[in-house]
Design a protein that fits this description.
The chain is mostly helical. Helix content is 60%, strand content 0%. It starts with 17 loop residues before the first helix and ends in an 18-residue tail after the last helix. The model has no long low-confidence stretch (mean pLDDT 77).
């Protein structure tokens, strides 16, 4: 019988998801800026509606989460050929999924942003350095 006390649960650090959120927001800012510029420069293109913006946010969130999960369970190997094979094994299903979503939903924005976000999420690595910690309670004398 195991009489050892249970291991303490590791609490989620509040700043742990901040780099992910910053990257995701930056990705959306770049994609939406490019979309707005291409729609402004192309003649006869309909304007981007709030539904299109929300769909872009949703597709990039799903793709980025898929890429992060993929990168966590199958990290990038050092050998170049295996890196290419791993990238192809991610790219083929995500491009197929995004094409299927594009045909089903007929979105205002290209559903290929899901594949792009998944690719970038799988390659994304946090900046090196310690995770900032919150200061403990102060003791007064």
């Amino acid at each position: 019988m195991n009489t050892a006390p249970p291991a303490p649960r590791r609490a989620a650090h509040p700043g742990r998801w901040l780099p992910h959120l910053q990257f995701w927001l930056g990705l959306n800012a770049a994609l939406l800026t490019a979309t707005l510029l291409t729609r402004a420069l192309s003649t006869g293109a309909p304007p981007l509606t709030p539904r299109g913006v929300l769909l872009c946010l949703l597709l990039t969130a799903v793709g980025f989460a898929l890429g992060l999960a993929y990168g966590r369970y199958w990290p990038l190997p050092p050998a170049p050929f295996t890196r290419i094979a791993r990238t192809l094994l991610l790219a083929v299903p995500t491009v197929g999924l995004s094409l299927a979503l594009g045909l089903l939903l007929r979105p205002e924005i290209s559903a290929l942003v899901l594949a792009l976000a998944a690719f970038l999420g799988a390659q994304w690595r946090p900046a090196p350095g310690p995770i900032p910690t919150q200061p403990g309670p102060t003791q007064s004398r």
